[in-house]
């Protein structure tokens, strides 16, 4: 939230319900009793001590028992109505949630970066009436609130969409890919894409296939916590992503998000190997089956790998913005019946990606459907629910039988990556299944790797002695 003070409105009509913004009984009575409203600065004496802060509006969907104060520290505190002994008004500050669009200072010596906004929490603020996080900040407002960006580059922004990433999909991928191509040809030194985190890995994979051979970094960034929260990761992520786009050497589609153990640095992940792994932690993105490409800390990028495409001076880039959305994606479960797959075939889907168990398995019940798919010319690809490791369908009889039904193994391609790659490949070769298969089984953007390095598989298990010792060091 911007705590910008807009006006001094001393005389607030206390009988007007609107001034209680979202509060209900019993809190409204408490506020009336002490002659205060939302946006009053107050000193609250309570049975739990004294608090000084600004009364914030209350979300209508939150409980009716607490009054919320924004403290000087920036943290919000909820005070239960029946602990309040007195509320003394010391001022009135109606906060503005609008961050002014700021004209970006131009410095001819700095790189030019194009920031495309698509929405998501990184471009959000809280709507205190409903408690919902709504996409509201334009990229211009966003950098108005993160002035450090001006030290890094000349940033030009364009808001393409204002949606949460659950609403991103193939139509948006195509627009983004074309826009990125244009920006590269126009001479920008890097591209940043603000995006919701939930499906960022689908979009990063889609862009990795649609925009190939870029001479400059294409950096996707999001945030897990909106910028009105003290623990927001929005500014750090944006600053580091912009640095990676402006000054970094990795000319690939990459995701720049919070590092794993501290708020010191961000990680750069390859777009086809990254996945959101936690619903709320800021360090939610992980490179799977490999290590991340690099660390970024303010003005320093430390590569962790060497096998990446380097920045170039030319403006050559291949944009293949296509997607056939007749692709289904099935997470296999024990007991799954053939009709789950058959219904996709009957509905005219042209390709199916399965996330199978273990080394790439489904049950026998599915075999008739796999046969039906083969006869109907619907390609079926196998990926893994285990997320780490390789599909190996020659090990067990089940795997061999599934292979005989024409199912195509996809090595260690992540299921989400396989889904978007198949939609793209089918659109690239609408009438040539052999070419689709060839494209799918050839790594083109790090989507499949030769092997998984031993430190490419790390899932910490808490409680065990060695991990306690390690965490003790990290957190001490
Ligand atoms: N649901 C939001 C989105 O993906 C969450 C976020 O932005 O992190 O757009």
What attributes does this structure have?
alpha/beta, SH3 type barrels, five-stranded antiparallel beta sheet, 23% strand, disordered N terminus, binds aspartic acid
N→C terminal distance: 31 Å
**What fraction of residues sit in β-strands?**
15-25%
Query: Got a strand count?
Result: 23
- CATH homologous superfamily classification of the largest domain: L-asparaginase, N-terminal domain
Tally of contiguous helical segments? 12
**Can you tell me the CATH architecture of the largest domain?**
3-Layer(aba) Sandwich
The CATH topology of the largest domain is what?
Rossmann fold
Number of domains: 3
Poorly predicted runs of 5 or more residues: 1-12
CA radius of gyration is 26 Å
CATH class division of the largest domain: Alpha Beta
- Helix proportion: 25-40%
Give the strand line-up of the largest sheet: 9-6-10-12-13-14-17-18
Largest sheet: 8 strands, mixed
Mean pLDDT: 89
Query: Which structural class fits the helix and strand makeup?
Result: alpha/beta
User: Can you list the ligands bound to this structure?
Assistant: aspartic acid
Q: Which word captures the global form?
A: globular
Oligomeric state, counting identical vs distinct chains:
single chain
What is the topological layout?
Layout: H1 27-34, E1 40-46, E2 49-55, E3 66-71, E4 76-80, E5 84-92, E6 112-117, E7 124-126, E8 133-135, H2 139-144, H3 149-152, E9 154-159, H4 170-186, E10 190-194, H5 200-210, E11 211-212, E12 218-221, H6 234-247, E13 253-258, E14 266-270, E15 274-276, E16 285-287, E17 294-297, E18 300-303, E19 318-319, E20 327-331, H7 338-346, E21 351-356, H8 367-376, E22 379-384, H9 397-404, E23 408-409, H10 415-428, H11 433-441, H12 465-475
Bound molecules: aspartic acid.
Residues 120-121, 164-166, 196-198, 222, 224 line the site of aspartic acid.
């Amino acid at each position: 939230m911007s705590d910008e003070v807009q006006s001094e409105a001393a005389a607030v009509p206390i009988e007007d319900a609107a001034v209680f913004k979202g509060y209900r009984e019993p809190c409204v009575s408490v506020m009336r009793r002490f002659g205060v409203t939302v946006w009053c600065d107050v000193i609250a004496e309570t049975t739990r001590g004294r608090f000084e802060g600004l009364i914030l509006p209350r979300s209508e969907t939150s409980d009716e028992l607490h009054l919320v104060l924004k403290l000087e520290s920036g943290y919000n505190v909820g005070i239960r109505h029946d602990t309040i002994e007195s509320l003394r008004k010391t001022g009135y500050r109606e906060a503005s949630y609008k961050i002014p669009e700021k004209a970006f200072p131009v410095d001819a010596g700095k790189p030019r970066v194009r920031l495309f906004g698509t929405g998501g929490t990184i471009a959000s603020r809280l709507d205190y009436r409903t408690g919902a996080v709504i996409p509201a900040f334009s990229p211009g407002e966003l950098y108005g609130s993160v002035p450090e960006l001006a030290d890094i580059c000349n940033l030009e922004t364009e808001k393409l969409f204002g949606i949460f990433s659950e609403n991103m999909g193939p139509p948006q991928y195509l627009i983004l890919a074309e826009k990125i191509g244009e920006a590269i040809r126009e001479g920008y030194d890097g591209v940043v894409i603000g995006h919701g985190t939930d499906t960022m890995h689908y979009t990063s994979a889609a862009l990795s296939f649609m925009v190939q051979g870029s001479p400059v970094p294409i950096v996707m960034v999001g945030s897990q916590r909106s910028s009105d929260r003290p623990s927001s990761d929005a500014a750090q992520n944006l600053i580091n992503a912009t640095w990676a786009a402006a000054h970094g050497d990795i000319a690939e589609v990459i995701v720049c998000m919070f590092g794993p153990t501290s708020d010191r640095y961000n990680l750069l992940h390859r777009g086809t190997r990254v996945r959101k792994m936690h619903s709320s932690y800021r360090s939610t993105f992980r490179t799977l089956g490999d290590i991340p490409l690099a660390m970024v800390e303010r003005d320093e990028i430390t590569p962790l790998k060497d096998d990446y495409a380097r920045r170039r001076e030319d403006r050559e880039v291949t944009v293949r913005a296509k997607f056939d959305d007749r692709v289904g994606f099935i997470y296999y479960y024990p007991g799954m019946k053939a009709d789950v797959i058959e219904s996709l075939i009957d509905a005219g889907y042209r390709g199916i990606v399965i996330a199978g168990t273990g080394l790439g398995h489904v049950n026998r019940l599915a075999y008739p459907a796999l046969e039906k798919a083969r006869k109907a010319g619907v390609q079926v690809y196998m990926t893994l629910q285990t997320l780490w490791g390789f599909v190996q369908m020659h090990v067990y009889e089940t795997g061999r039988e599934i292979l005989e039904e024409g199912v195509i193994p996809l090595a260690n391609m992540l299921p989400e990556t396989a889904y978007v790659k198949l939609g793209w490949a089918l659109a690239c070769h609408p009438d040539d299944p052999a070419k689709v298969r060839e494209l799918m089984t050839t790594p083109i953007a790090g989507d499949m790797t030769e092997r998984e390095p031993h430190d490419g598989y790390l899932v910490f298990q808490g409680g065990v002695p060695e991990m306690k010792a390690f965490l003790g060091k990290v957190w001490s």
